[in-house]
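User: I'm putting together a teaching handout on how multi-component assemblies are represented. Below are the sequence lines for each component of a complex, exactly as they appear in our records. Could you produce the 3D structure of the whole assembly as C-alpha cells, so the students can see both representations side by side? Please keep the chain order the same as the input.
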Amino acid sequence: MRTDDLSRRDFLSVAESGLFVFFPLEPLAAFQEPARLPARQGYPTDFNAYLRIDAGGWVTCLVGKVELGQGSKTALAQILAEELDVALDSVDMVMGDTDICPWDMGTFGSLSIRQFGPILRGAGAEARAVLLQMAAEHLQVEAGRLRVKAGVVADPSAPGKRVTYAQLVQGKRIERHIEKAPVKPVAAYTVVGQSPRRKDAIEKVTGQARYAGDMAIPEMLHARILRPPAHGATLKDVDTSAAERVPGVRVVKEGDFVAVLHERRDLADQALGLMRAQFELPRPGVDDQAIFDHLLKTAPAGQVLAESGSLSEGERRAAAIVDETYLNSYVAHAAMETHSATATIEDGKATVWASTQTPFPVRQQVAQALGFTPQNVRVITPYVGGGFGGKSSSRQAVEAARLAKFTGKPVQVVWDRAEEFFYDTFRPAAVVKIRSGLTGDGRISFWDYSVYCAGDREAKQFYDIPHQRTVSSGGWGGGNPAGLHPFSVGPWRAPSVNTNTFARESHMDILAAKAGIDPLEFRLSHLTDKRMQRVLEAAAKRFDWTSGRAPSGRGVGVACAIYLGTYVATMAEVAVDRSTGRVEVRRVVSAQDQGVIVNPDGSRQQMEGSITMGLGYTLTEEVHFKNGEVLDHNFDSYQIPRFSWLPKIETVLIENPEVPASGCGEPPIVTMGAVVANAVHDAVGARLFQLPMTPARILEALRRG
Amino acid sequence: MQRTVSFTLNGKPTRVTVDDERMLLWVLRNDLGLTGAKFGCGTALCGACTVIVGKDAVRSCLTPIRDVAGKRVLTIEGLGKEGQLHPIQKAFLKHHAFQCGYCTPGMILNAYALLLKKPQPTHADIVGHLDDNLCRCGSHVRIIAAIQEAASAMKGGER
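Assistant: Of course. Below is the structure of the complete assembly, with chains in the same order as your input.
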C-alpha cells in the first residue's frame, strides 16, 4: 500500500530547517531552456510540492495526475529521474491523493506530458541545481567541477570528493531555491527516451493492483442505489419493505435518493431487486433516429473559429461543388472498471478512494455534498481501470460519501454495467456539414465547414485552401442549451476530434476521387506543413502505398490529423463482404510525430490502444436510446472491439527532438473513422457518411451505389 | 440455502458457510478478501471475473459457490508472486500486455486454461479462446504476443 510506504519513509514529518535563499545562477547557455516553474494556473511553484528525498535516498514524486493505464506513472517518473539525475528505480510515485499531492486540474486532454511534464521537469531541474550548490559547499569544490549520477554528486578529478543527495538532504525539506535553473538539453537525456519496465507492471500481472472497488474497511457496507428507468423520470413512490427483510440489509431514504446497503455486495444486489418503485416517466422525447434533426434544430448559434479569403470568390473559381453531411452517434466510454468509490468518515474528516480522472474537483464536490470544508475531505485515487474521459465525471464518489454520512459506516459504491451506461457522459452525437469547391486542375478552391455539437477542437483546416471558414456550435463541455442532449455528454478520448477528423478526411477523399487524383498525392499537394508531410510519407513508406485513383478495388485508405500538437497519419486496408455488409480491417499502419518521445514503448502501446479502441466507434459503437431511456445495458448490445477484430497493427514513431513532448495517448484514434471509411470506399465504391459503419449502413450505401 | 462449502483455493483447503447460491466472485471478493477477480459486467459478457475451476476458465460472476464444492479453484493471487512469476505473468510483464490492468487477471487466467488444454496454440486458437474477454485499452496485440511467448517458454513443461 502506498500510504504505508509513505509513513515508513516518514517524509510527512520533515523538520523545518535550512536556509531560505534565492540565488540566481549564471546566465543560461543558448541551448538551455529555462525551467518552467513559476506559476502555471494554480500549480505550486515550490519544487518541494513535487518531490521529497528521504534519508535512504528514495525519491518520492508527488503528482495530482492519476494512472488510468496510459502509463504516466512511469513516464512522469522518467521525467523527474532525468532532471534530478537519480536512478529511475529510486523514484516512487504517489498520484492523485489530494492530501499530499500538489493540486492538479485532472488527468485528461493528453496534458500529463505536454502541460504537466514541463512543470515536473522544472521542479527536478531546480532541485538538482540546489543540491549541486549544497554539494559544492559541503565538498568545498566549485559547483562547475561536480557531476551527478544516480543521486551521487562527485568531483571526477578528485577521488573521495563525493556526497549523496540523501546525505545532503538528511530527510529534511529543501529550503533553498534557485530561480531559472536550466533544464537538461534533450541530447543529454539518458532516462527519457528509454522504455523501462512499467512501474505498475508487477502489481498488475499479479492481481495486487488495487482499484477503488477493491478497498475493504472493517464494517464496510456495499451500497446499491435505486435508479430511474429513464433520464427525466421522477420517483413517485417506493416500497422498501421486501428489501428490508433481507437479513443484514440497511435502507437509506432521503427524498428520491434511495439505497440499500449490505456487508456483501451480492446481497445488496438482491435487496435492490426487491424494491418496488413507481416512477413518472418523462414526456416522449427524441430517440437515436431523430437525434440528428433535433441537434441541428436545437444547437446554439455557431461561432466562427477561422476565416480567410472569400468563400464567394472560392465558389466562383470552383468547377465543381461538393456539399456533404457527416453524422456520428453517441458513444460510451465503457471502461472495464465501472465507476467505483469507497468512502469513510472519521472525526469529521471524509476519505474517499475513487476511480476518477479529477481527484481535486471531486474533493470539492464531496465537500459540498457533505457540508464539509475541502480540507476535511481527502480523495485518494488508486489505480483506475480505464477512463477515456468518462471518469472526469465522478458522481459515484459523492454517492459513497453521502451514504457513509447517512449510515455512519464506511460505504462502497461500485456501479453495475447498466448504471455505467445510464450515467455515462457520452461522446456527443454530432453533425458536420462541409461545402467545398474543386477547380478544374484539382485544387480545393474553398472550404466551408460547420460542426454541430461535437466541439471545436481541431476543427480548423490545416490544408492550404485559399478561401475558407470554420464554424462550430455546441460541444462536449458546458454551455449547451438545456434539452440539446437527452443525457449527459462529456469528453471521450480525443474529444471533438474523432468527429472532426472523420468529416474532414472523408471529404478530402471525396474531393480527391472527384479530381481523379490519388488520395495521398491530393493531400500532399494541399500541404505545406512539413511535419504533416513527414508523417504521411512515413506512413506511406511503411504501408507501401502505391498511387491509385479511388475506388481502386484494393480497399486501402489514408487519413491524417493534428491532435494538440501531435501529428498522425494512418493507412488501412480493409475487405468488405458485399453480401453481409461486414467490414474486416486487415492492416493498420500509423505514423506519429509527438515531438520528444519520453517512452517509446509506452507511446507505441498508446498508439496500438488508440487504433484498436477506434475500431469500435468506427464499426459498431452507438448508444441506443428512446424517451430518455438508455437501451444499452451491457456488452451484448453495445459491442466493443475484440481479439477477432484485430488488424495487423504497425506503428511508426518519428524522432523530432526539436519539438517539446506532446501527448501520445489519443492521436491515432481520431483517424480511425475516416481511414476505414476511405478504405471501404476504395474497396467497393460505397461512401459512408455516418458512424458507426454497421453492416446495415454498409449494405444501404452499397444499394445507393 | 445456507451451507458449508469446502474447496481448495490457491492450493489451500478452504471452507465457507454461506448461502450456496451466492456467486463465487462475491464470495472471493467480500468473504475471502481476494480482489484479483474483478467485477466488469455481472453477466459473463466481459471476462474480468475469470478464475480457474479444475482445469477450466469460468466466469465467477455467474458460478454459484455450490458448483465449486470439492474442486480446486485458482485465482490470480495463487498463480505466482514477485520473484516467482508464472511464465504467462512473465510474458505479460515483458510485453507490457496491459494498460489499466483491470482485465489482466482474467486474461492471464484464461490464457492459463488455454495452455493447459493446448500447450502450443496457433494465433487463431488464442483469438478464439480469448474472444469473449474484453479489454477497453486495446492491449490485444500484446496479449496475443505474450501468450505466444509464454507457450514457447513453457515447452519445457512448466505447469
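A couple of points students might notice: The longest helix of chain B spans residues 104-117. Chain B touches chain A through 59 residues (CB under 8 Å).
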